[in-house]
């Protein structure tokens, strides 16, 4: 491509480093150190949390950070920013992605941050301004947070037309790291992939046509454990832009999977998977859509696994490659994946058999089909299925897990005696299946000393 991803990344880092005096700080590993509130690093700011909170050891190099830039490996699986439900289904949410980030720790604030972001996008990357929309925090009465008029005026002064400057509430424009931690109002830049029309109503509307690219957060509070907001000792700026999304914009692609960050990977997947069609090979058919979705999931997953496994090791950005640990650790990554894959495939096979047989028993006319919570729980506990995988596998059949019952089980910690590939008498009763020998052919003997059933499979 005209502008390879590597160049997009380095242009960003150079702009802030050389032109605006930011210090380049390496990405931290995706596994957070010493922060029990997080499963994975979900944003560039995570490693700087102590700076926001004012708890940095004065002897640490962090104590002197004022302007910082980096490219951070992020994983959004689980927690407040979980994106697993979107990955593969859309073309711009990844499990692992790179966040291009900038910070001002008590240095510049809103106006300079907005001006630098706009200048980089429109002048250096050459994105037409009429493809961009800007959102800002419009306030929230219930939490007594006011509209961020200061930011609105900054953008207006910079010539952004009012019709492209849109207020949103807490969910979109008040960024929070997790259930607790630094937070504040934000202003975001969105890109219209189509152009030539008023697309304001598509901003923050889950449309693939208008996609959020850059978030500028004005860190002013800490969300305490009791959910109250405490003002931070100093105000800071924390911005983050998804590299994959930016690259898709600059390479003129509607999908991040059509950029050079993914095409080699999708090609390699095609080579080893003996799938008939390459990614995006045939168009229009529903089958191909499903195959393409699978391609996207696999490609996304390979990236995520590689980065996560490699991060048993400390990254260093000193030489050539951006993430050298990926090369150093290649053999180990392959070993770990193979081992886990074999184990998981076995589990998957057992679990799929159970799930396949279960809906046959759910004769429950007139109401939604529910999978017994104990079966779901057994898949999870005995086979290590993530519960959302169970949901996914059932989705195609129009079946849902009995959530209420499952929550009850999880909360009560009851040990259930459902075994693999088995449905108990209690299951059949709950599902309203008549107790004929015929229906019991699905049942296995569970509570041996209480019931005797023919195991007739
Ligand atoms: P979205 O609304 O699209 O889910 P977000 O508001 O959750 O994004 P932020 O927390 O504001 O995202 O993160 C900053 C930037 O990181 C986003 O503007 C986007 O460019 C990028 N980003 C966020 N989540 C993902 C993801 N799952 N995959 C790729 N890029 C992402
Ligand atoms: Mg999101
Ligand atoms: Mg958003
Ligand atoms: Mg956002």
TrEMBL record:
Catalyzed reaction equations: tRNA(Ala) + L-alanine + ATP = L-alanyl-tRNA(Ala) + AMP + diphosphate
BP terms from Gene Ontology: alanyl-tRNA aminoacylation
Domain Alanyl-transfer RNA synthetases family profile: 3-457
Cofactor binding, note field: Binds 1 zinc ion per subunit.
Enzyme class, UniProt record, top EC level: ligase
Cofactor: Zn(2+)
GO CC terms of this entry: mitochondrion
GO MF term set: alanine-tRNA ligase activity; aminoacyl-tRNA deacylase activity; ATP binding; tRNA binding; zinc ion binding
Entry annotated with the keyword Endoplasmic reticulum: no
Entry keywords, A to Z: Aminoacyl-tRNA synthetase, ATP-binding, Ligase, Metal-binding, Nucleotide-binding, Protein biosynthesis, RNA-binding, tRNA-binding, Zinc
Subunit structure: Monomer. Interacts with ANKRD16; the interaction is direct.
Protein family: Belongs to the class-II aminoacyl-tRNA synthetase family. Alax-L subfamily.
Domain remarks: Consists of three domains; the N-terminal catalytic domain, the editing domain and the C-terminal C-Ala domain. The editing domain removes incorrectly charged amino acids, while the C-Ala domain, along with tRNA(Ala), serves as a bridge to cooperatively bring together the editing and aminoacylation centers thus stimulating deacylation of misacylated tRNAs.
Function in brief: Catalyzes the attachment of alanine to tRNA(Ala) in a two-step reaction: alanine is first activated by ATP to form Ala-AMP and then transferred to the acceptor end of tRNA(Ala). Also edits incorrectly charged tRNA(Ala) via its editing domain.
Protein name as catalogued: Alanine--tRNA ligase
Protein's organism: Acanthochromis polyacanthus (spiny chromis)
Annotated gene: AARS
Full-protein positions shown: 32 to 488 of 809
């Amino acid at each position: 491509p005209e502008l390879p991803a590597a160049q997009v990344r380095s242009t960003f880092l150079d702009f802030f480093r050389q032109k605006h005096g930011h210090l380049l700080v390496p990405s931290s590993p995706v596994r957070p150190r010493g922060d029990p509130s997080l499963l994975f690093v979900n944003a560039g700011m995570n490693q700087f949390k102590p700076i926001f909170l004012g708890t940095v050891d004065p002897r640490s190099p962090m104590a002197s950070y004022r302007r910082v830039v980096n490219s951070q490996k992020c994983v959004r699986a689980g927690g407040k920013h979980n994106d697993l439900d979107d990955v593969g289904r859309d073309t711009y949410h990844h499990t692992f992605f790179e966040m291009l980030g900038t910070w001002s720790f008590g240095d510049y604030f809103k106006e300079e941050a907005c001006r630098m972001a706009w200048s980089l996008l429109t002048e250096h990357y050459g994105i037409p301004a009429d493809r961009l929309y800007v959102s800002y925090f419009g306030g929230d009465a219930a939490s007594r947070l006011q509209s961020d008029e200061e930011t609105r005026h900054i953008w207006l002064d910079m010539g952004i037309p009012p019709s492209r400057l849109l207020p949103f509430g807490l969910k979109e424009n008040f960024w929070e790291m997790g259930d607790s931690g630094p937070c504040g109002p934000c202003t975001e830049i969105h890109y219209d992939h189509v152009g030539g029309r008023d697309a304001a109503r598509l901003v923050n509307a889950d449309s693939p046509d208008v996609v959020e690219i850059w978030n500028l957060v004005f860190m002013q509070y800490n969300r305490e454990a009791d959910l109250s907001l405490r003002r931070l000792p100093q105000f800071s700026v924390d911005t983050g832009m998804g590299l994959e999304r930016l690259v898709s914009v600059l390479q003129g692609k509607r999908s991040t999977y059509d950029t050079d960050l993914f095409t080699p990977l999708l090609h390699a997947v095609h080579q080893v998977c003996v799938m008939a069609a390459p990614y995006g090979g045939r168009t229009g058919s529903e089958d191909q859509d499903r195959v393409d979705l699978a391609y996207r999931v696999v490609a996304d997953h390979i990236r995520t696994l590689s980065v996560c496994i490699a991060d048993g090791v400390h990254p260093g950005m000193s030489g050539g490659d951006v993430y050298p640990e990926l090369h150093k650790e290649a053999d180990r990554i392959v070993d770990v994946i193979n081992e886990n894959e074999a184990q998981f495939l076995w589990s998957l096979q057992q679990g799929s058999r159970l799930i396949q047989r279960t809906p046959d028993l759910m004769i429950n006319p007139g109401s939604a089909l529910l999978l017994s919570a104990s079966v779901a729980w057994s898949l999870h506990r005995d086979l290590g299925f993530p519960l959302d995988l169970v949901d996914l596998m059932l989705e195609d059949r129009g079946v849902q897990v009995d959530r209420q019952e499952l929550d009850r089980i999880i909360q009560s910690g009851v040990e259930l005696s459902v075994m693999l590939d088995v449905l108990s008498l209690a299951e059949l009763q709950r599902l309203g299946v008549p107790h004929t020998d015929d229906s019991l052919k699905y049942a296995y003997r569970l509570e041996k000393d209480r019931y005797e059933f023919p195991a007739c499979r």
